[in-house]
Design brief:
The structure is a single chain. The chain is an alpha/beta fold. Helices cover 26% and strands 23% of the residues. It contains five helices and nine strands, in the order E-H-E-H-E-E-E-H-E-H-E-E-H-E. The protein has a five-stranded parallel β-sheet with strand order 5-9-8-6-7. Strands 1-2-4-3 form a four-stranded mixed β-sheet, covered by helices on one side. Helix 2 (46-57) crosses helix 5.
Length: 191
């Protein structure tokens, strides 16, 4: 097998969302157009997170090589005219979503965190579809319904909201800052 050569290697083993994306943004900003970043991680969710971030920022996700517990992600920095990071334009703050839930409005809360994150702590009745599975599971959602997308910090949910909007979902809002500061009711396997 031919070894992939990277211009910069970034060690992010042991870090969880949002730190892999934060570190990737910083590292890729130091590269020149066309150079390759090797991002080493142990967080299984980092593959879908980095792939989605690369797509939204215009950089190229080349692929991932798994070596035991370590995931080696490879990203190519695009030129400035290729990149312009997008953000989903429709957001809602935690307290606004909490009020909607208290009124029992007919809405869907979509939790795009990893299965383990959801299992331990989530908004009651939220649907769990991890970001990496979203494209394959779009059929589980009503593209005309009100969908409020949540993750831990608002980063993955932003990427998921963009993906849903691209696929024709017309009423999608990104919930910020997400579960890291959620003031409302939660449930989980320890409850």
């Amino acid at each position: 097998m031919e070894i992939v050569k990277a211009n910069v290697v970034l060690d992010a083993k042991g870090l969880a969302c949002p730190m892999p994306i934060v570190k990737t943004k910083k590292a890729i900003s130091t590269l020149e157009s066309g150079q390759v970043l090797e991002f080493q991680a142990t967080d299984k969710g980092s593959k879908s997170d980095l792939k989605a971030w690369a797509q939204s920022s215009g950089h190229q996700y080349l692929g991932t090589i798994e070596e035991g517990e370590v995931l080696k992600h490879f990203l190519r920095k695009s030129s400035d005219d290729e990149t312009q990071e997008k953000k989903h334009p429709h957001i809602i703050h935690n307290d606004e979503l909490e009020k909607k839930l208290e009124k029992n409005e007919n809405i869907v809360v979509l939790d795009v965190r990893e299965v383990a994150e959801y299992a331990f702590n989530h908004i009651p009745n939220a649907i769990s579809i991890p970001l990496g599975e979203l494209e394959d599971r779009l059929g589980e959602l009503n593209n005309q319904g009100e969908i409020y997308v949540v993750c831990r910090t608002g980063s993955r949910s932003d990427l998921a909201s963009q993906k849903l909007a691209e696929k024709g979902f017309s009423n999608v809002k990104n919930v910020v800052p997400g579960m890291s500061e959620w003031p409302g009711k939660t449930t989980g396997i320890l409850d």
